[in-house]
Specification:
Rossmann fold, alpha/beta, Transcription Regulator spoIIAA, 2 domains, 33% helix, five-stranded mixed beta sheet, single chain, seven-stranded mixed beta sheet
């Protein structure tokens, strides 16, 4: 069976996507190659948050093609979603698969080695109706659709080595996409609307990690604090028949109550998503790491004060949250 190599660029969410792609390729029967030079197919999972990220991806494509010209290259991720024609024109690229169809990467790789072409059968009819699905531009083929119609979420733990303790700390993506429309940010247009991994699936992944001997994990997402807002509502504790949307605090509490995980770390949660309930939960539980990574953009120019941005993370907002945290944590940290 052919060997594959997955190379990831960018954030933790991209790394989690790459881990999910690896899982699917292994399930399909492919073998993992340590180096691109040893692989028959290389999957490049790209970032596009800056022009430098795009440049790094193009350089990687050229380098892999130069060192292993017989290798087939499939490019996916945010850059693939944003500029597929630009990528497919590069020598060596066989497939460009946008984030909208990233869940079909294993099928595309399988087709690359199929003796009988199956282009008319492996892509669902619905994809053909709603996507710029399969088109040819330059050297490779493109599989791309409307990212805002995309509802699936790829998730698989990423294992980051902790050199200090010589252990492995899994990173689990539980949310993808963003419903904010900040004028300076391209993420919503390449990752789509906010989507959450259902609570039962999160708990199942966590339980599997605990059973495998992992005592600690990191929760991550593109806009982690918005987890649950797209999922089915819960019964409210108020009047009979009332419901409320799931909140990120519900996920954290369920993980503490429903699993034997010893230590939970939260990746970036934006300031406006730190409710009093979440702050109190983090402060009161010895199983949650006392750490917060806050995003805050300081207006450098007068025009930025009127920037079209729905994040609302003002300096006073950040200061208020910090003071609340200091007031309820025993150490005042």
């Amino acid at each position: 069976m052919q060997r594959f190599h997955v190379e990831n660029f960018g954030c933790r969410a991209t790394q989690a996507d790459g881990a999910a792609i690896e899982r699917e390729l292994l399930k399909t029967g492919f073998r993992r190659a340590i180096q691109p030079s040893d692989a028959e197919v290389v999957v490049l999972n790209t970032c596009t948050v800056t022009s430098a990220a795009d440049r790094d991806a193009r350089a990687a494509i050229r380098r892999i093609h130069r060192r292993n010209p017989e290798c087939k290259i499939l490019v996916t991720g945010c850059y693939a979603q944003r500029a597929p024609e630009e990528i497919t024109a590069l020598p060596g690229v066989s497939w460009v698969v946008g984030n909208s169809h990233k869940h079909q990467v294993a099928s595309c790789v399988t087709e690359l080695f199929s003796s009988v072409p199956s282009a008319g059968t492996f892509i669902p009819l619905q994809s053909l109706l709603t996507a710029n699905s399969e088109q040819t531009a330059g050297h490779g083929r493109i599989l791309l659709g409307d990212i805002f119609a995309h509802t699936q979420l790829l998730a698989a733990p990423v294992f980051d080595a902790d050199l200090a303790s010589e252990t492995t700390r899994p990173n689990l993506k539980v949310q993808d996409g963003c419903d904010n429309r900040c004028s300076f940010c391209i993420i919503p247009s390449v990752r789509g609307q906010s989507r959450s991994l259902p609570l039962a699936e999160v708990l199942r992944e966590v339980e599997a990690l605990v059973a495998a001997g992992h005592r600690e994990l990191v929760l991550s997402g593109i806009n982690l604090g918005r987890w649950g807002r797209d999922l089915d509502a819960l019964p409210s504790s108020g009047r009979l028949g009332q419901t409320r949307k799931l909140k990120f605090e519900d996920l954290v509490r369920a993980m503490l109550d429903g699993t034997a995980l010893q230590k939970l770390r939260l990746s970036s949660v934006e300031p406006m998503d730190w409710s009093d309930e979440l702050i109190e939960l983090v402060a009161s539980s010895p199983r949650i790491a006392k750490h917060a990574n806050w995003w805050h953009r300081r207006p450098a120019l007068p025009s930025m004060h009127t920037c079209r941005c729905s994040r609302g993370a003002t300096a006073s907002c950040v200061a208020c949250i910090a003071n609340t945290g200091r007031g309820i944590t025993p150490s005042g940290c």
